Amino acid sequence: MFSNKCKSKARLDGKTAIVTGSNTGIGKVTAKEFYRLGAKVILACRDVKKAEQAVSEITAEVQGDGLGQLIIEELDLASFASIKRCAKSILQKETKIHLLVNNAGVMTCPKGKTQDGFETQFGINHLGHFLFTLLLLPRIRSSAPARIVIVSSLAHVFGSIDFKDINHDKSYSPAIAYSQSKLANVLFSKELSRKLEGDETNEKFKYLILRTGVHVYSLHPGIVRTELTRTLDQVYFPGMWFLGRIFLYPWVKNPKQGAQTTLYCSIDEKTEAETGLYYSDCKVKEPSSLARDPELAKKLWETSIEMVGLKDYDVFNCSGDVIPDPLKDV
């Protein structure tokens, strides 16, 4: 029920795509479809063995002509060191990056911290992808036209950004922390698209809109039956997800259905001229009022830049042909 399908006939021959968390769920479906459409697909995953199994399954299931390539890169979004290693490895091997899908994530997990000391959900779902995207952005810009797709959630409507306790040290609720991280995803998409477009009131930056050619999207995939819900029983009570599936059955999607909006934002011709918008079921939807707050988006950007240690990194004026300064000593 309520599951539209990406109907694009576009192909990705000669394109390079990166999909985080693509060894399972909607990420795996996304990687599989990109491969079928002829792209070189980089599966950026924390568990390399599971990624290898996913590659074996994809290549066994998808046969025929015009297929792409499948490449595995290790990426642990809970570790800035791992993110930097992965980004540098990709930049050393790939001259172009046409498509980045920030798909990986965790949901309503027990209280914990990333390797760099940030609340797990905010650290992985937002900060990890924020850092990864900005390290790759100069190469993405030089590969234009290009797209950056950020998988968020409808849960963002329940979220707010608590800058005074962004790591939820004082009080931790798995659901509130998750909603904050998903709101951060939408705000990141909004602010990144604004910065890539430039100031439309300035004639100089109007020209930059044409030169940038990088479009950014955020989306709600739906309530999807994936491993993302694996911690619900642990956080709440045994059988929580089973009961949830019973009550939500008419709306629960399988991974193939859940990947359709990601594919729509990634390849559909209709979205080619759109940027900074939020999508659900292959349609533009209005996000929450906080997600539309430009000042909140700017403040989160500035805070995130400091948290990931990129304060001295001029990402929008860095050449896409070289390894960025933050990665030179990695």
From TrEMBL:
Keywords: Oxidoreductase
Name this polypeptide is given: Retinol dehydrogenase 12
Lineage, opening ranks: Eukaryota, Metazoa, Ecdysozoa, Arthropoda, Hexapoda
Regions crossing the membrane: none
Family of the protein in this entry: Belongs to the short-chain dehydrogenases/reductases (SDR) family.
Keyword Acyltransferase: no
Signal peptide location: none
A Pfam family assignment: adh_short
GO molecular function terms noted in the UniProt entry: oxidoreductase activity
